[in-house]
Design a protein that fits this description.
The chain is an alpha/beta fold. Helices cover 26% and strands 17% of the residues. It is built from 12 helices and 19 strands. Helix 7 (142-153) crosses helix 11 (293-302).
């Protein structure tokens, strides 16, 4: 059972309706906020439902109807930063500490998710292992998908859903201000190692990626993948630049169109038609860190890829490995798949776009 707790702000008035806030926003625009023209508009619940509905055979991403139907039995998690959470959120939403759900621990084979630390973070906001969970942000960017991945990595048995459209995809009651604390849970992790791979797992398969072996997708920008000289995309903390041999490059932002997921048919064409991935094979995704690749992890799962895994150590670990012979880096072009995408919102999950 999901605990219902009231919300308060500093004035003791902690909720508002979407309609009321939009009326206020529209009034501010009419009153002279000309510089924000195009960013604010009045919409109806039917407009929101139609714009962010998820149709077809798509898993994990849901439209506005799902939270409306499950408001009494699902935990809602906000993946944005604390400031945005205070300003406006889905009423009853809880904010999990983001740094904690990206925690790692070192093993002989490389970095892996710290399941106990991640579970404790979810338990601190009252999530139980069998709760159905809805995650949202300002969009469907990588903070949202990392939260979903973190739940999967600790063996969460309840449903894990991401709200298409982010906060804009919600047309119900809103909360503001400081949220009252909820009762914590003792979340005992049941780690799911099938959700990730390690540095040594990859090292044992170098030479086979996308060539009779597992699929391997680098989600970074092409300049990082190709080690483009002088590019701002190159990480100064890396001893080497380039990519894991055999990886193909598909920038993760192609998964997102403003505040919603890219049209599913386009995603199938992108990953199967252009990238040539085989949904019957294991597919591994990696980036510099362990956040951005989770966008591709959830997207591939949403369109029917069953065995998708995250290299949690990322290229930051691989590039700085001591045994360079066992952990080679290449810069020659393998496959760079061009993508088009933009991440709406300002939740630190991508570029802000007021037109979304």
């Amino acid at each position: 059972m999901v605990e219902k707790t009231p919300e308060t702000d500093d004035d003791g008035n902690g909720d508002a309706t979407r309609r009321g806030l939009l009326r206020a926003a529209a009034g501010a625009t009419v009153a002279g906020a000309a510089s924000t023209a195009g960013c604010l508009s009045v919409t109806t619940p039917a407009d929101v439902a139609a714009e962010y509905a998820v149709t077809g055979n798509v898993a994990h991403f849901v439209g506005p109807s799902w939270p409306a139907e499950h408001r009494d039995d699902a935990v809602v998690l906000d993946a944005r930063n604390a400031e945005r959470f205070r300003e406006e959120r889905i009423y009853g939403a809880r904010r999990v500490p983001f740094d904690a759900i990206t925690s790692q621990r070192s093993t002989d084979d490389g970095a892996v998710p710290d399941a106990d630390a991640v579970a404790a973070a979810f338990g601190s906001v009252g999530v139980a292992p069998d709760d159905d969970v809805l995650v949202y942000g300002a969009s469907v960017g990588s903070r949202v998908t990392r939260t979903a991945f973190a739940l999967a990595a600790i063996g969460h048995s309840g449903a894990i859903k991401a709200l298409n459209g982010g906060l804009d995809g919600w047309n119900g009651r809103l909360g503001t201000g400081t949220r009252r604390e909820v009762s914590t849970t003792d979340y005992e992790a049941d780690p799911a190692p099938s959700a990730w791979v390690t540095r040594e797992w990859l090292a044992e398969r170098v030479g086979s990626f996308n060539d009779g072996g597992p699929g391997l997708v680098d989600v970074r920008v092409p300049e990082a993948y190709l080690a483009a000289a002088g590019s701002a995309a190159l990480n100064d903390d890396h001893e080497r630049h380039g990519h894991i041999p055999g990886a193909i490059d598909v920038h993760w932002v192609g998964n997102v169109s403003g505040r919603r997921m890219t049209e599913p048919g386009r995603l199938v064409q992108l990953y199967e038609g252009e990238a040539g991935l085989d949904r019957s094979e294991t597919v591994v995704v990696y980036g510099d860190d362990n956040v951005d690749p989770t966008s591709t992890w959830l997207t591939l799962r949403a369109i029917g890829f069953e065995d998708v895994r995250v290299y949690d150590g990322g290229f930051s670990e691989w590039a700085n490995a001591d045994d360079r012979g066992r952990h080679p880096v290449e810069t020659a072009t393998n496959v760079v798949v061009e993508t088009e995408g933009s991440v709406g919102g300002d939740d630190n999950s991508g570029d802000f776009s007021c037109t979304g």
